[in-house]
Amino acid sequence: MLLSNNLEDIQKFETHLSHHFYRYSLTRLDLSTSCTHWLVNSYRTKLREHKPDHLLVTDYITHTPLKSFAEKESFFRLFQLIAFLRTNKINPKKQEYVGGQTYYSLEFLLSDYLQFIKMTGIGGKGQSRREKIKDGLINLQGLNPLVRDFSNHEFQSFVIFPTINIIKQGKFLIVKMSIAKQLFYYQYPYVLPRSFLRYKNKYDLQVKLELLKSFCSLSIKKQIHVEKFIKQFSIPNQRIKEIKILLLKALKDLDEFIEPTFEIIKINGSIFTTNQLTLQSIKQSRIISFKESITIPKL
Fold first, then answer.
1. CA 49 to CA 189: how far, in whole Å?
2. pLDDT tens column, 2-43
3. Contact, 30 vs 36, CB < 8 A?
4. Helix (H/G/I), strand (E/B), else coil: 290
5. Rounded to whole angstroms, how far apart are CA atoms 256 and 44?
6. What is the DSSP letter of 192?
7. Could you tell me the residue ranges of all domains in the chain?
8. How big is the CA angle at 216 (ends 54 and 42), to the nearest 5 degrees?
9. Paired strand residues for 106
10. Pairing outcome for strands 172-180 and 164-169
11. What's 223's DSSP letter?
């Protein structure tokens, strides 16, 4: 093949050589250091290409302070919306320029969005639940703006959703919105299970946000500060137990995406590793550490 003058043969050889180097690097290099973040991100990108409907954006969260439950819920709705737009391949109708920024106009059926998120975490029935979802979409306009730094003395801040309208056309409710180009095309390549798109109640939402926050680390090593997370809740012990059960379930849902070994720093300061998380180990934990799974791709 090296002696071939055929362009297709040469391209095949180059592709095979690149794949070989890629696989070798994943097996031989230490992926837990900052020096190999580029390689891990390359892997995540390839993984995203094979599982596009599992994609969740998990970087904006590190720059967005979430204090009240309403802020956390709106932020989670953002995750759901971005996943919905990508899974259903919602394409822009047109683009507009506002204050030097590009925004895309989108349209989709409200019923399609409701079906996608299964209206989880929303109390009430029928019309009442739909109204809460509609309000949740409108409330996305209250999210913190995106900020672009230019220098030490100048920066630009711009809203994510300048307009969100829900109108009736015939028998259908249509969502019409403008979204910042930077968010619409944002391709941070973490892959998480579909169960993370939905939540059963306010505690489940906060557990999943905490895990999403841990996945924002560029390193393959992730940490959950269990004791600190639990202490924010001033609720009866039975509710605390419920949160710990939800955390255990959420971690088990990640089986496909993380290594099966957990390092636990206990509340008393001792450290141990385990391949099987239990409710008891969650109760004893100050910090739980685990690693993102890196599966060597086939040629």
1. 9
2. 555 666 665 565 555 555 555 555 555 566 666 665 555 665
3. yes
4. strand
5. 14
6. -
7. 63-184, 193-291
8. 65
9. 177
10. antiparallel
11. E
